[in-house]
Design goal:
heterodimer, A: 0% strand, elongated, B: 3 helices, 81% helix, transmembrane helix (chain B), cell membrane (chain B)
């Protein structure tokens, strides 16, 4: 029991990322309003991005910008002194894709509202079955 | 990464996420989602991912909130859950 508790405390950030992901998944599945579903989707995406960025972190390392980069081309770079920048770059792309997805989904929500005068999923289902 | 800052900001992030999906007003959802994005940006700055942090601050907290508020004003603020 004590070892299990120590495991949870040692990796507390991963557990909290999983909680954040589950909040987003719950909002996507259980919420009735389409806007709330979109906010849940964005929470889910940012939780995954947070997990990836936290993988690249190293203890005792500095920001991934080379010190004295200009003029000293023969200087040896120790990769262990810098935080791994590869997850950052990948997740930068993911942020841009997520805001594009969000904008397209908002445009679809506005069109749905103009046509059916509601954003609630159950009311939309009733309107769709009437026709 | 200083672990007390990390833990405190993560707790605030989770509270903001829960509040954003439970509040019964879509404009309130927009503002709470903006606060969520800013806290997430702070978390990334603590982790040393400064490029991701300022992209999130401009795109996540800025542009997404503008989209959400514009969409709410074109539709309705009403929500049932």
């Amino acid at each position: 029991m004590n070892e299990f508790l120590a495991l949870i405390v040692a990796k507390y950030n991963f557990w909290l990322y999983i909680i954040l992901m589950m909040i987003g998944l719950y909002a996507m599945i259980a919420k009735n309003n389409l806007m709330k579903k979109l906010v849940g989707m964005n929470i889910f995406q940012t939780a995954i991005i947070l997990f990836y960025v936290s993988i690249g972190y190293k203890h005792g390392a500095t920001l991934p910008i080379i010190q004295g980069g200009h003029g000293t081309h023969d200087a040896v770079i120790h990769a262990a002194d810098y935080i791994n920048p590869l997850p950052h770059v990948l997740m930068l792309t993911a942020i841009v894709v997520s805001v594009a997805t969000f904008g397209v989904a908002m445009a679809l929500c506005v069109k749905i509202y103009q046509r059916y005068q509601t954003l609630e999923e159950d009311e939309l289902r009733i309107r769709l079955s009437e026709k | 990464m200083l672990w007390p800052i990390d833990l405190i900001v993560l707790t605030f992030v989770i509270f903001c996420a829960i509040a954003a999906i439970t509040v019964r007003d879509l404009l309130g959802t927009a503002i709470l989602f903006s606060a969520y994005s800013f806290l997430m940006c702070l978390l990334w700055a603590v982790m040393g991912a400064v490029d991701v942090a300022f992209t999130e601050a401009s795109v996540g907290a800025g542009v997404s909130t503008v989209f959400l508020v514009a969409a709410v004003f074109r539709t309705s603020r009403r929500t049932k859950d």
